[in-house]
């Protein structure tokens, strides 16, 4: 059996005395898409942060491309080929769109022409400061910036939250194109219909633990999913 690109096993993490992750297990195969679902506060964002090295795991293992990475600094994790699209977007207000796209670019990553072909809005706003962009434009910029780093795995935290329906459609179309090109994705998403239609595998977590894991087709038949949806 081929080893997954990302393998998380028994992952624990704390915020001070708060035990946020309590043994998370998940795997993302090369070219696969995994949706991480759960209520607010379940530990979804913390799982991504622990993988990325923003939060230091207190126990468990994280392996990427067969190499242990748990506890590594965020910049080292990024150089290995993992890119993170945080919920906060982390846009610098004083930097222009084009400066964002060239600041962290790596050989093999998306160049400006490819980005502007995919995101015409960013071409139009290339001289604009990050602080002047709409929420949708900032999200496009955050995804495009991640792709300049030549990632093998993209971590996305609520990429469509709070966006206008038309922008949501553009973001979802972009994610589908990335999937078609073989990009591996670990997606935290509240849009259940999109997550189930888009993902190859679903992991439902609650109170820091995996409550259910399986194919999207089986999600609605799972008792754990029914309990989550009922609230």
Any overview of this molecule?
The protein has 231 residues and is α/β, with parallel strands linked by helices. It is built from nine helices and ten strands. Helix 7 links the parallel strand 7 and strand 8 (184-188). The protein is globular, with a radius of gyration of 17 Å.
Summary keywords:
alpha/beta; 231 residues; 6-stranded mixed β-sheet; 2 domains; 4-stranded antiparallel β-sheet; 26% strand; Rossmann fold; globular
Summarize the structure in short.
With 231 residues, the chain is of the alpha/beta class. Helices cover 34% and strands 26% of the residues.
- In round numbers, the mean pLDDT is 93
Shape: globular
Give the fraction of residues assigned to helices.
Answer: 25-40%
Provide the number of structural domains.
2
Main sheet, how many strands, which sense, barrel? 6 strands, mixed
- Under CATH, the topology of the largest domain can be stated as Rossmann fold
CATH architecture of the largest domain: 3-Layer(aba) Sandwich
Strand order in space, largest sheet: 6-7-8-3-9-10
CATH class of the largest domain: Alpha Beta
CATH superfamily of the largest domain: P-loop containing nucleotide triphosphate hydrolases
Total beta strand runs:
10
Strand percentage? 25-35%
Number of helices: 9
Poorly predicted runs are none
> How widely separated are the two ends?
38 Å
The SS-based structural class is alpha/beta
Radius of gyration, rounded?
A: 17 Å
């Amino acid at each position: 059996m081929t080893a997954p690109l990302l393998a998380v096993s028994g992952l624990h993490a704390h915020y001070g005395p708060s035990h946020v992750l309590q043994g998370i297990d998940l795997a993302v195969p090369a070219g696969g898409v995994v949706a991480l679902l759960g209520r607010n506060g379940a530990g979804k964002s913390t799982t991504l942060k622990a993988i990325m090295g923003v939060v230091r795991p207190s126990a468990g293992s994280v392996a990427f491309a067969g190499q242990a990475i748990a506890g590594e600094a965020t910049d080292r994790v990024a150089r290995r080929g993992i890119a993170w699209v945080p919920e906060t977007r982390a846009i610098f207000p004083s930097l222009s769109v084009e400066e964002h796209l060239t600041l962290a670019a790596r050989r093999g990553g998306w160049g400006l022409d490819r980005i502007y072909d995919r995101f015409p809005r960013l071409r139009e706003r290339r001289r604009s400061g990050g602080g002047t962009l709409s929420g949708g434009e900032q999200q496009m910029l955050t995804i495009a910036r991640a792709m300049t780093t030549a990632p093998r795995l993209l971590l996305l935290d609520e990429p469509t939250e709070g966006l206008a329906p038309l922008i949501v459609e553009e973001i979802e179309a972009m994610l589908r194109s990335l999937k078609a090109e073989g990009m591996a994705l670990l997606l935290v998403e509240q849009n259940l219909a999109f997550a189930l239609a888009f993902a190859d595998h679903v992991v439902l977590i609650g109170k820091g633990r995996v409550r259910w894991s399986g194919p999207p087709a089986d999600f609605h038949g799972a008792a754990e999913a029914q309990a989550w949806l009922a609230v």
